[in-house]
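Two folds, back to back.
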Amino acid sequence: MLSLAILKRQLVDKKLFSRLIVRKFVVGRNLNKSKSQFNLKRFVKGTFLGVTAGAIAYDGYNEFQVYGGVSRFLRSLKIAALISIDYSWHLYGLTDESEEYEQILKKIHLRSANRLLNGCLANGGLYIKIGQGVSAINHILPSEYTDTLKKLENECLPRRSDEVKRVFEIEFGKSPEELFAEFDYKPIAAASLAQVFRAKTKDGHDVAVKIQYIDLINRFSGDFATILCIQEIIKLIHKNYNFGWILRDLRKNLEQELDFVHEGKNSERCATELRKFDFIHVPTVEWNLTSKRVLTAEWIDGYKISDLNRIKKDNLDIADIDKKLFKVFSEQIFNTGFVHSDPHPGNLFIRKRQNGKPEIVLLDHGLYEHLTSSTRLSLCQFWEAIVLKDQAKMDKYAKELHVNDSNKLAEILMQRPIDMKRPTFTTRLTDEDIAYFQADAKRHFDVVLETLKQMPRNMLFVIRNLNTVRAIARHHGDPIDRPTVMAKYAQRCIYNTSNFNLTQKVKWIIRRIKFDFQLAKISLQFWFIRTYLDILKFFGRSSVDSKTILNYNPQ
């Protein structure tokens, strides 16, 4: 009995022990599982925080490129959406022939232009550069846009002062104090791509130092992709919008502008090709103080070509300045083919020479376009055919420039109406007469856009050059007939590139006499119409003067 009881007790103890073992194993496994889950969560959380902190630190080290890029994208997207909604909402149900439509449209143009202006200033860099380019497309865009965005020429925002030392350390391995005898850290100008500072070299020369924004190269591709993306979104909403091809064509030229060594070489080539003119000066480059992101050049004491007060104070002849300006760019367009593509007033300075005559200083040589000899010859011959009113030759040379509508091309280049047969002169100018003279943007817009798309791409910058120079002349009061000066230069270039025998020279002289006669006739006709319109305005028989009516924009 005792042994049986002991046996039973041992069996019970074994069961209890087994249960205890099982329970301990299960509980222990659950405890280990909970600890593992806790450790995994802590690991994931720690890894996430670590990666995030590392990404932020890396982005901070790289001037917050990612954060900045996202911010610029969202800001641009917001502006594009607001502009799109503004047009769609306020023009809904209105016909484009109504007077109300025109009034509302102008207000929307102005609101949209101000949104673009503020967005470009906030985003900086490439956005400002493209905004400046848009402001020069006054042969396509409404004046509300071009006039508003012109402010970008003067309102570019300066950057942090410590950028200067960092750029010099990257480019030269030295600080400005080590490279210059004097260096003023206060910028004298803040442009779209760079700031400009005044300094003195160790050999005593005063220089202007152009220093690229430190983050510009890194953000270029992202910003350009953002701009193209947004314009594609706009294109989906507004079917008539089609400017992406212009932006894509700009990319190559803008990339070249980021290389200041390239700009320095451009300036030297420009100086060489224009040395025939004693009234043009191009600042010399200090190559030992120049790199891809730093350009050091001769300091210029002058003022903008648009500063009429200074021009009058120096007793300089505005007509003489404009004639010189037209000759310089005619030389580039018709003869050398190496065309300065950004001649806005900030890049054209005036200074008075010792002989009392004006000297034009040509600055900022980052953006140039090349015209081939065949393109230049076709352009010269087309310009001559316009004056001679030879429609067959106009069509021929327009085709050589890949343009179908020769008359529209002529209006774009001459920037005034080609057909001057009307109006029927009366003692009062009616609204119908005024409408005839003024450019009808709605009717011509698509034709001009198609004409520009047909041209060789490098011709777009020639048109930009012409528009910018025309705007300067208009600001001066148009004292010189620009088309006449350029037409004469174009024909002279035809003669200089031809090898005539005696018979051909005789024919050329007759052709030249006919050309000069037609040119004088056109100029006289234009002057007569302008005087007639001003007389009507003076006697209250017209609501507008000649400048308003003949401020021709062939869009």
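---
second:
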Amino acid sequence: MACQQSRYHSFSSASRLQPRPSGVTIDESFLTEDKSTQNRKLLQKRRTLPYREIFEFFIEDFKTYKPLLSSIKNAYEGMLAHQREKIRALEPLKAKLVTVNEDCNERILAMRAEEKYEISLLKKEKMNLLKLIDKKNEEKISLQSEVTKLRKNLAEEYLHYLSERDARKILIADLNELRYQREDMSLAQSPGIWGEDPVKLTLALTMTRQDLTRTQMELNTMKANFGDVVPRRDFEMQEKTNKHLQEQLDTLRASYEEVRKEHEILMQLHMSTLKERDQFFSELQEIQRTSTPRPDWTKCKDVVAGGPDRWQMLAEGKNSDQLVDVLLEEIGSGLLREKDFFPGLGYGEAIPAFLRFDGLVENKKPSKKDVVNLLKDAWKERLAEEQKETFPDFFFNFLEHRFGPSDAMAWAYTIFENIKIFHSNEVMSQFYAVLMGKRSENVYVTQKETVAQLLKEMTNADSQNEGLLTMEQFNTVLKSTFPLKTEEQIQELMEAGGWHLSSSNADLLNYRSLFMEDEEGQSEPFVQKLWEQYMDEKDEYLRQLKQELGIELHEEVTLPKLRGGLMTIDPSLDKQTVNTYMSQAFQLPESEMPEEGDEKEEAVVEILQTALERLQVIDIRRVGPREPEPAS
């Protein structure tokens, strides 16, 4: 121990006594030069060069430790050479991975285009069938009216023929009587008849009258029986027409029965809807009775800095909840401007690492625009290359590099207090959520990549490169980029972009203006609607997962049960994604996750509410459509 202490003292005394070389001072000045003007890879190599020269100087100067320092240098040089060889070997694999990724994307786009074409054909067929059904219904109504009219005409004709038959019989009887009277008178007036035998003539007259009466009766019988008979050709034609009408009547009766059943179903739905309406109306009355009156927000215009004009600009298009946030931000920003120092929060475990400090720290009092620009620069540096450190540690290191170690803590407190107040600002609220661990930084990265991909698709659709798209092109790009979104969601995005159902197809949209931001980092309503739909889709996804599991939030869920629930609601999930979700939900490293079917799976349990809250933090979304349930 004494030997080590003496050696340490000799080393420290030797380092103090040795004169500092002039070359070292030059190299240190090189380390502090502006790094933004050099290429990153060349800068990295040149930054290590001064350290290498200094280390060689130490090796040559300290003769006692020269073997030890040489071995250390050789070990690091060997490790660096090994890492370079490994990187060089992985370069072809990276190129191959990019090629495979492009092929897969092309196949996916081709499949989507084919599905879209099939869907359009099915929609056209559906519209044709609906038109055919409407046409048949119209024919059915017209035939019903025609059948009713024919029945009425048939009844009238039947009554007319009956009256004609009775009148004909009466007229024939009158004619016979008149004929008998005329014959009697002619016999009485004829002079040649008196020469005949009266008995013979009377008998002949009687027989003749009997024959006439019998013949007349047969004639009347024939007329009565066959007076209404029609020709066979007319009868067959009428029979054919009657058969055709009967078939149509049967078809109409079947259609009427189907319509009647549908009407009964619709009436049941109508009654249930009426019950729900009455229930909602009673709930609305109860809420109106128990709720507090709406506040008069116009009172704030005289309190907010900037007067009525600024308050009108802040309150435009916001609901009461959003107005409360705006008012709190205004009050908080005023209090922040009045503070010159922040009290340190100490070194407790519950305090974030970048805020652990005792004493007073200065309030730098930056503007809202300065804070937004600083956060954007932090995101750019975070995304520029892969960072292995945690986000809070990166944030503090970024402040140290930007403002120096002496002012880093003051800027950390200043920025933290600002982003904690301004909830309505997208950049600040998202940065605060990631910084405090309420949201994974992958959510922010994925959202930015989605917006960039959408802009790229719109640019590809703009063949003239004029920055303009028609409504059809805009709708097509949205559907191809977001194939899982519903028609209502696509319509919401189109309305957020400035198009409504009443818009003309000939109108053109400046799509590049949809992706612009103001000086405070606020995006356009179109990008905001994308973010709102993403959060709604995540909530719906987790709600379906809870419903599929069928247990309460306070109950425990096992690893295989949660995996089965995810695969049921989203069958397109791959194994790697499922393992990532499982690792987050149960807070286990992916390398320690039990394999599917392993006995250890049942031993891994977690409270369902805790698991869902952990999944809410990460970027969890639907990969493919859910399989439709079998019809009962």
